[in-house]
Design goal:
- The chain contains eight helices and five strands; from the N terminus they run αααααβαβαβββα.
- By secondary structure, it is α+β, with helices and mostly antiparallel strands.
- Helix content is about 50%, strand content about 15%.
- The protein is globular, with a radius of gyration of 19 Å.
Length: about 210
């Protein structure tokens, strides 16, 4: 059977996903940057500009390629790195328990590597309240903005970044009302975020896997 144009697109998409995964796992690139750079690597500048979104993989496809990359090249180091990041994430979440912390990103989904930081979402009466709490604990913070998880129709949210046990932590500060839309699962059934109990469960499960 002759390959169809759709087969060609699927192949290119898989090649872009694999190239993007290498950039994320090996170099610490973010998904958006990795996707664009990988498309240029696979297609060339001109073809990449003309191909459009059809050949760009979605983040879930890239995420699976990141898992595969770690399994092939970092199997002796990545599990320990992930366990450390999840352990520190739990410490931070317990310290900030009054602000309804949730873990998100690579540390939650299991693809975290040497370049990844811990990403949290907090839900509080005000961002300033969280910032003052951290400053009173002698935690040095940097303040930036993160796109709202509900999409571009919503204003970005303040984000505090700091070091905790020598690991980077970025905590996006949401209003309490935003929690109503925070507990949905992804379309593939994976968790978008996990609370303190969920992170504890992940650590217990990974400990049992080693036994």
């Amino acid at each position: 059977m002759m390959p169809t144009p759709n087969d060609d697109i699927q192949l290119l998409r898989a090649q872009v996903a694999a190239a993007a995964a290498r950039l994320i796992a090996a170099d610490g690139a973010d998904y958006g940057t990795a996707k664009r750079k990988a498309a240029r690597q696979v297609l060339g500048e001109q073809r990449s500009a003309n191909a459009g979104a059809a050949v760009l993989p979605d983040n879930s496809q890239i995420e699976e390629e990141v898992r595969l990359y770690h399994a092939l090249f970092n199997a002796d180091t990545q599990p320990a790195r992930l366990f450390r990041l999840r352990t520190i994430a739990l410490q931070v979440m317990e310290a900030l328990e009054q602000y309804n912390p949730f873990l998100t990103g690579a540390v939650l989904n299991g693809t975290a590597g040497p370049h990844d930081d811990i990403h949290l979402q907090l839900f509080a009466d005000s961002a300033k309240e969280v910032e003052i709490f951290l400053l009173n604990k002698n935690v040095q913070i940097d303040i930036s903005e993160t796109p709202h998880f509900k999409g571009p129709r919503y204003d970005p949210v303040e984000t505090v970044s700091f070091l905790w046990n020598k690991e980077g932590v970025h905590a996006a500060l949401y209003e309490l009302d935003d929690m109503r839309g925070a507990l949905k699962a992804r379309s593939d059934g994976r968790q978008l975020r996990a609370d303190i109990a969920g992170v504890r469960a992940l650590l217990i499960a990974s400990t049992h896997e080693e036994i």
